């Protein structure tokens, strides 16, 4: 028995159904990719990360101030974070400034 090709109307309707479910699943897929990228950073021992919505990827905080500009502050300093990890980062940053 030979298979007949579906009519144009049926093909358009199938395409519409396919597109609908593809768009419905895209947000779930994006969420999963974001979680997997975060876990990959953790696996690579990168814990001080943030999500960059422009790059669609996780970025690390620049603690060593590699561009030499003393006016740029640590991201945690801007928000006044007082946890021990941030205090340590600030003390290391200040020691580097003193050595220069």
Structure description:
Strand 1 (49-52) and strand 2 (57-60) form a beta hairpin. This protein has 2 domains: 7-60; 61-100, no CATH class. The chain has 100 residues and is mainly alpha-helical. It is built from 3 helices and 2 strands. The longest helix has 36 residues, at 8-43.
Structural class: mainly alpha
Proportion in helices:
55-70%
Largest sheet: 2 strands, antiparallel
Tell me what portion of residues adopts beta-strand conformation.
5-15%
- Tell me the number of helical segments per DSSP (H or I, 4 or more residues long): 3
Average of the residue pLDDT scores: 75
Shape: rod-shaped
Number of strands: 2
Please give the radius of gyration in angstroms. Answer: 25 Å
Low-confidence stretches: 68-73
Topology summary:
Elements (H helix, E strand, L loop, with lengths): L7 H36 L5 E4 L4 E4 L14 H5 L4 H16 L1
Antiparallel strand pairs: 1-2
Keywords:
single chain; mainly alpha; two-stranded antiparallel ribbon; 3 helices; rod-shaped
């Amino acid at each position: 028995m030979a298979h007949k090709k579906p009519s144009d109307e049926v093909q358009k309707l199938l395409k519409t159904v396919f597109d609908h479910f593809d768009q419905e699943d895209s947000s779930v897929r994006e969420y999963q990719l974001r979680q997997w990228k975060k876990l990959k950073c953790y696996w690579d021992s990168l814990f001080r990360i943030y999500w960059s919505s422009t790059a669609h990827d996780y970025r690390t905080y620049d603690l060593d101030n590699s561009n030499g500009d003393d006016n740029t502050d640590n991201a945690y300093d801007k928000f006044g974070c007082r946890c021990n990890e941030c205090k340590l980062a600030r003390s290391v940053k200040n020691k580097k400034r003193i050595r220069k």
